[in-house]
Amino acid sequence: MKIATYNVNGINGRLLVLLRWLAEAMPDIVCLQELKAPDERFPQAEIEAAGYQALWHGQKSWNGVAILSRVGMPVETRRGLPGDPDPGQSRYLEAAVSGLLIGALYVPNGNPRPGPKYDYKLAWLAAFQAHAADLLRSGLPVVLAGDYNIIPTDSDVYKPERWREDALFAPEVRAAFAAIMQQGWTDALRTLHPEATIYTFWDYFRNAYARNAGLRIDHLLLSPAIAGRLASATVDHHVRGWEKSSDHAPAWIGLSG
């Protein structure tokens, strides 16, 4: 079972890139972020022609998340994060797929810091932490995959000293991520590659991708009920180099059994 997360940075503007990657990588389940499209503009026909059934939670011009599956129709269990301080933003979608519970999320960026956007990020993370704890108590096999907009540690960013004041790397944000992990979740990529340089995002500016000046902000967290099945985890780094690509690359895990 191959499960991926990919911030597409505009699903309609980058649809050809997404379809090319789906055909190449053939993931079983995909969580998408930053659709930047209202529900009626989700490219359902093209996604289905590629072999995937989909659920989506869109929003005009901003945000938006989706779950794609080629192993059975995702059965929606939740639309929106419980306790979201701004439920008008489309940032969370949850579904049962092939015996798993999949949570697709897009955490607020939070910049500029300080300010109301940063306050919203902290409030959203507090609500997410509470929901993640509820999911763990359920005992279900859960994957929480998406763009967390969090750089967990210094090893997850090129030149960390340049990011100290950014909302992606702020002490409160890193502490929130650590608190979620301490509940008992497994960070799939870092668990299998504890010392590796792994990035999932490269800015469009300053030739960042060519210099590999990136960040690891896209994460797949596994509940204890499924963590033992983790067999592989990687980033399709090369996709970031395609023409008209997103500034993120897809990250994915392989589960045994």
From TrEMBL:
Keywords: Hydrolase, Magnesium, Manganese, Metal-binding. It is an enzyme of class 3 (hydrolase). The keyword Magnesium applies. Pfam families: Exo_endo_phos. The record marks N149 as: Transition state stabilizer. Residues 4-248 form the Endonuclease/exonuclease/phosphatase domain. InterPro entries: AP_endonuc_1, AP_endonuclease_F1_BS, AP_endonuclease_F1_CS, Endo/exonu/phosph_ase_sf, Endo/exonuclease/phosphatase, ExoIII-like. Gene3D superfamilies: Endonuclease/exonuclease/phosphatase. The record marks D218 as: Important for catalytic activity. Probably binds two magnesium or manganese ions per subunit. GO terms for molecular function: DNA binding; double-stranded DNA 3'-5' DNA exonuclease activity; endonuclease activity; metal ion binding. Its cofactor is Mg(2+); Mn(2+). The active site is at Y106, D147 (proton donor/acceptor), H248 (proton acceptor). Its EC number is 3.1.11.2. Mg(2+) binds at N7, E34, D147, N149, D247, H248. PANTHER family: EXODEOXYRIBONUCLEASE III. Belongs to the DNA repair enzymes AP/ExoA family. This is Exodeoxyribonuclease III. The lineage of its organism: Bacteria, Pseudomonadati, Pseudomonadota, Alphaproteobacteria, Sphingomonadales. The gene is xth.
